Amino acid sequence: MIARAAALDRPLRLYLWLAFGITWGAGGLALLMGVIHSGAAHPLHPLHYLAAFGPSIAGVVMAAGVEGWAGVRRLLARVVPTRAGVPWYAAVLVGFPAANFAAAWFLDRGSLVRIPSWDRLLWLVPITLVTDTGPLGEEFGWRGFALPRLLRGGRPVSAALILGAIWWAWHLPTFFIPALSQSHLSIPLFLVNSLALSVLMTALYLRTGGDLLLMILVHLMANYCGAIGIPFRAEVSAEVGLAALALVGGGLRAGALQAVAGDTVVASLRSGASSDQENQVET
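The structure corresponding to this sequence follows.
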């Protein structure tokens, strides 16, 4: 049912065309211009940022197109820290790396020798946020615009898996560009990674009423764990374990949006639905 609903959602289709078009278009242009080549990439080049921020740019553009500036303000307001979100922020900042360290200890204990010292680990968190474009470049789109529309009228687990597959597909060209980090990863394992993270993030999204800052933090910590040297298979194992806990705990049960998300996201979805109906009447 959710797949059919998503397929009929014109703003979501336009969002995906825009997100993929910006990223793949800017990335392809960067390849043609030699900004990205087999030896290295130029992370400070404008085309790099345009490609990396494609999903978030598309999310803001579509929020404005569907709901006007009020929609953009609502989208940006969801990244403002909330008192209710503080325990979740702490859980992600501490619990996510802890799960990754535990997985690495069980699967590849020798890899822990290469992990930076504890004092450096703390400093690397804000450094990763600044140097890694993924969290800010993507989450205003994937979890800011696309996920609420996928959740509308359908099962949360289906929405999570669909978005995870889309997220994985968006990354596909990076596996064939030697200068980029994804070129060294397994494509099937990255699919498992994307699906597991999407399930976990959707459960947290529902639990916190669509807290976008929390989504950015989860994305940040996932990339951070890879940056400090956690083996990718250990990272994926930790994410699968956390996603399984979310499923077992009922974080993606049908009706979870109304049951635990509170009024914020429900109101946003209803507002979005009303805006779509008005736009259809006008056109």
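The two ends are 26 Å apart (CA to CA).
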